[in-house]
Amino acid sequence: MVLYEYPFNESIRTMLRLEHLFDRLGQLLPRDAAMDHHFALLTMFEIMEVASRADLKSDLLKELDRHKAQFNAFRSNPQVSPAALDAVIARIDQAFNGLKLQPGKAGQSLAGHDWLNSVRSRIGIPGGTCEFDLPAYHAWQQRDPVRRRSDLTAWVATLEPLADALHTVLKLVRDAGVPHKVVSNAGQFQQSLPPGRSYQLLRVLIDDLESLVPEITGHRLQVSVRLMRPDADGRLRPAAVNMAFELTLCA
Asked: Is residue 37 within 8 Å of 140, Cβ to Cβ?
């Protein structure tokens, strides 16, 4: 099964991009090869670039606050476990306070790091980090993997409050959805959305055995999924199949 996600607004779109980058960074950091650490550094710079959006921090704080208010509203419900509720709210508070206490934007504390700035200014240029362009960076790459990883871990630690808040918000958004089975009609599926209800994320879980790729579009009134299949050249073509898949709308 393959999971596809479609964001309904720019804020969630940015969060998904950051989640993708943090996941990549988490896979690269434990490795030992200098090339892996090169791409870990590149990924860290990409995170800083995406996170430089002026309203990202406030968006995350608002989302955490919104979810906390929703969970607090359940306190009068006798069917809700107070212990479980307290655990979720404590998790939200931890993410909220960690991000709120972080000064400025993500990675701002690294802005004055001359060595990192020299690498960042060259790493986006094709071949820009060759040893004759950045001998200091070339020397760093020759260091013991444990020492390189120690440096990377220290730099990435400045991004941890952002990562914690991001993962908490996306988990809350995803957990708010209820998956249900739907069936395409000749490769097409459409569903009207209830008026007055705001959704943030659409999730589609589809069987990968059929080599189908969902082309997803959506807005506040309707979502549409068109099933596509790659041809011999990799171009996607409409697949006129009646196919069951799982769809989740997350508020």
From this structure: no
Q: Which fold does the domain 10-172 belong to in CATH?
A: YacF-like (1.10.3900)
For the domain spanning 177-250, the CATH number is: 2.60.440.10
Domain with CATH 1.10.3900.10 in the chain: 10-172
**Helix, coil or strand: residue 142:** coil
Q: Cα 248–235–220 angle (5° rounding)?
A: 30
Please report which helix (H) or strand (E) contains residue 26, including its range. Answer: helix 10-28
d(C-alpha 137, C-alpha 139), whole Å: 5
pLDDT digits (tens, 9 = 90+) for 198-250: 899 999 999 888 889 999 998 888 999 999 999 989 899 999 999 999 999 99
216 is written with which tokens? 């997803």
**Portions of the chain given CATH number 2.60.440.10:** 177-250
Please give the helix or strand (H or E) that residue 100 lies within, else none. Answer: helix 82-100
Report, in this order, helix, strand and coil percent for the chain, each rounded to 5.
50, 20, 30
- Asked whether the beta carbons of 208 and 246 are under 8 A apart, the reply is no
